[in-house]
Fold:
Amino acid sequence: MFNVIVSKSLKTLSKKEVIQLKDLSDAVKLDNATQENGSVMIYNVSNIVTVDLVSDDPDNPQEYTKTVVIDSEGNRFVTGSDAFARRAWNIAEEMDGDEFGFKVYRRPSKNYAGREFLSCSVI
Structure:
């Protein structure tokens, strides 16, 4: 079992929104979606949330960090990509409350031949 800890959010979350973040099984997995479609457009971002999933099993301690992007219609998009998270948060902070969206895509790694990472640009 994992405990879900919201470590960062663009906006203050209600109790209901925090509970909803505990189950991301219906969220679009950006890693898979970009492999299938090349890119994913997320219009009208309403929130970005960083959640830490921490195992409560002392014999098998695990911790994951996920970035969740929520659009104005309530659709959720999730990834564990650190590169995407850094870029998305930088864009959100620069937008400073103005309306924006993301084009999410894969880029070849300069450090690891044959590997790709997720990135995004503002739309």
